[in-house]
UniProtKB/TrEMBL annotation, chain A:
Segments traversing the membrane: none
GO MF term set: hydro-lyase activity
Recorded family membership: Belongs to the class-I fumarase family.
Keywords tagged on the record: Lyase
Protein name: Fumarate hydrolyase
Highest taxon in the source lineage: Bacteria
Domain Fe-S hydro-lyase tartrate dehydratase beta-type catalytic span(s) in chain numbering: 6-183
One Pfam family linked to the record: Fumerase_C
SUPFAM superfamilies: FumA C-terminal domain-like
Amino acid sequence: MAHHVLHMPITEEQVRALRIGDTVTLEDTLFGIRDATQIHMFDHGRRTKFDLHGHAVIHTAPNLRKVERSGTNHSGYEPVCIGTTTSDRMERFTRPLMEREGVRIIIGKGGLRDGSLDAFRDLGGAYLAVVGGAAALETTWVQAVEDVDLDDLNPESLYKFSIKGFGPLLVAMDAHGGSLYAAVNAEAARRRQAVLEKLGAS
Amino acid sequence: MTLMTKPGVEPLRVEPEAIEEAAKLLYIRACKVLPDDIKEGFTRLDATETDATAKTILATMIENIGVAERMDNLLCQDTGIPIFNVLIGRNVQVDGWALKEAIAKGTARATREHPLRSSVVHPITRKNEHTSCGERVPVINIDFTDAERELRLEMIPKGSGSENGSFLQMLIPADGVAAVKRFVVDRVIQAGGKVCPPTIVGVGVGGTSDLCMHLAKVAATRPLGSHCTDAEGAKLEAELSEAVNCLGIGPQGLGGDSTAFAVHVETAATHITMNPVAVNIQCHSARRASATFTPDGIRIGF
């Protein structure tokens, strides 16, 4: 159960070193992505100006305040509250995100499915769990909304966040076929019968 | 009969401006401050949790409640679908149409003026008006109570991760209550970590399909520690509360004992041929806020 501090972007070797149960703190850069962002990128063929190779994306749609653009703030936004949404809806975008855009890490809550686990193994990637619904805390790890793309989709634009000490996050799916969610789901299925028997409902 | 009010008693008149201000205030407050019963729920789960990862996750959730209050920030980034319950007592005078307009105005102002993320879009075009409003949204439920000269406005920002954990099954009488129990257990397994556990699992039993689903929402959003007023429903919620926490799903679906704060059940009479059951889930950020209007003024609470 190692702890890793990763300055983004990272290499395939670095992501393959992560094992389920490890913890990770991210530094420097993180991209925010969501349903509409990926529907437009992969179903409607839109491309982003950002180079996502080696980077981490987080399943999010933030609360932001509009501000004047400045030398370091190219987005025109500052964070109000940035948190994490349920990943499962975006399952089918994992492989194209990795294949076409070069993404190495997906951060979210609730986990992804077997297709994503295969993509992590085939292409070198990992899923890091953040505690969903703990957005006030998560916002303290975000320094700025540095830049934005596909902003007609607001609040589901593609955001570039500048981050400091983003974590600890839990490696919940790794590049070696490990998934904490699969283990928990299998255990729940195993316990189901005894639970139903006790309820007189088997 | 032409009398509109009881003779000799001045009715409580609630002006739309007051409703609008309250709607705005409640939306923002609900997003920032968790009710005491939910905080106590966390303390209770934390005391009994045996899994190390689950303990860490619960600690982070509890830390987040403090950070939100200290920094005057939102607990969760999901501002939800705004739901307002309007409970109108006896001898209350209110312009119903103006009340509905005032709730939407207050919601839109909270969204623009705080600002809050507008999480509401057209269901087909997916267009976001950036007001948290749209056709039939905010969801407004109006009911009547026997409270004398009192109007209560309850606000619930219902997060989508847990709202997507909504299920209805039109079971039949031959399936019995055993099938109702199986349905609840299986839907909790299916929802897993996607609904942001620990949750309040709301269960509707009986009624029509739409009433059954509504009962599940009422159950999911009522305070922890409250019980179903129907004795059979209360028995069911005690049994199911224990059962779902034996599945090992745990906080965030990463394993542990704390899958749900509680299972809440609401019941309604149903047809001789029907046995409907519905599940609606509330996430751990089980947010609520309320304003109670009386002749003495406005009381803000949960």
